[in-house]
Specification:
about 290 residues; alpha+beta; Fructose-1,6-Bisphosphatase, Chain A, domain 1; D-Maltodextrin-Binding Protein, domain 2; 2 domains; 6-stranded mixed sheet
């Protein structure tokens, strides 16, 4: 696809994400009914609301004309995988409301995420829109990153610290204390004053916040149960990291496979985003040592 076409499609995705974010803002107060998806291994991966579904419908309506014009496939969180991602040259990948658990708790940490991925699994457009602040991050392959996104308050005054965005399930992992010890060592090697742990946001914003910091990491460990993230959780942010030339991989160090023909789930391989290769290398070595 030509650079001009990618740029035009990124504008369409930006508008769709902004419209969905505006819809979320209209419904981010008061009680909300929460449903549960079957077969998921964590509360974060199982919760869904009617707002998720309405945002998805709105986004798909905005993307429909581009799908017809360019014969683009689709993978979106709240609809079954129709296989079009495996037969088209490109597919839209949509997470209409990442961080639904934070949304239902009426806490910051949720966002709209849209990406365009080629059949080989390489994201070529990434768009993230944060509804509360109306901030965004956008990337187009070969055309850089634009961002108004700002770091959360938990990251204030952390320029001389290592910030670890932690999956809440990691806090109950049997090797959690060993992980903390290892990260303390990494901080010392990097001449940093310590480690700050942040949790509570969805995967999309956690990865975005790593991109905003000089010394930060976000990861999810592999597990056998469904959950732990899907293609739509990582597609847009992987595009950001590619354009920023920052490390992003699975937890063995292999490139993220964002169009696995067998499953959209990524629980089997885990993910790792970091601001520096040194941090990535330490995390990979640590998890290799405990498996």
């Amino acid at each position: 696809m030509k650079p001009s076409e990618l740029k035009a499609l990124s504008i369409i995705a930006e508008r769709a994400a902004a419209d969905a974010a505006a819809f979320i803002r209209q419904h981010n107060e008061g009680d909300i009914v929460v449903d549960r998806k079957k077969g998921m291994s964590s509360e974060a991966s199982s919760v869904v609301t009617w707002v998720d579904l309405q945002c998805q419908a709105l986004i798909l309506e905005r993307l429909q004309e581009s799908r017809e014009r360019y014969d683009i496939g689709l993978l979106t969180e709240e609809l079954p995988d129709d296989g079009s991602r495996l037969t088209r040259e490109y597919f839209w990948c949509v997470d209409p409301l990442d961080g639904t658990l934070a949304f239902t708790a009426r806490k910051p940490g949720y966002a709209v995420s849209i990406a365009l991925i080629d059949r080989a699994g390489v994201p070529v457009i990434g768009v993230v829109h944060e509804p509360i602040t109306r901030q965004y991050m956008v990337a187009v392959q070969g055309q850089g990153v634009r961002s108004t996104l700002q770091a959360p308050t938990e990251m204030s005054d952390t320029s001389d610290q290592l910030v670890c965005f932690l999956d809440q399930q990691m806090a109950v992992h049997p090797r959690y204390e060993a992980l903390r010890t290892m990260l303390d060592t990494v901080a010392q090697e990097m001449h940093l004053s310590g480690v700050v742990y942040v949790s509570g946001s969805g995967a999309v914003l956690q990865a975005c916040h790593v991109a905003l910091h000089e010394h930060a990491v976000f990861f999810k460990i592999p597990k056998t149960q469904l959950g732990g993230g899907c293609i739509w959780d990582y597609a847009a942010t992987a595009c950001f990291f590619g354009e920023l030339a920052r490390p992003v991989s699975d937890l063995s160090g292999a490139p993220l496979h964002l169009n696995n023909p067998d499953t959209p789930f990524m629980n089997h391989c885990g993910v790792l985003y970091s601001s520096e290769q040194q941090i990535t290398d330490h995390l990979i070595a640590f998890f290799e040592s405990i498996h």
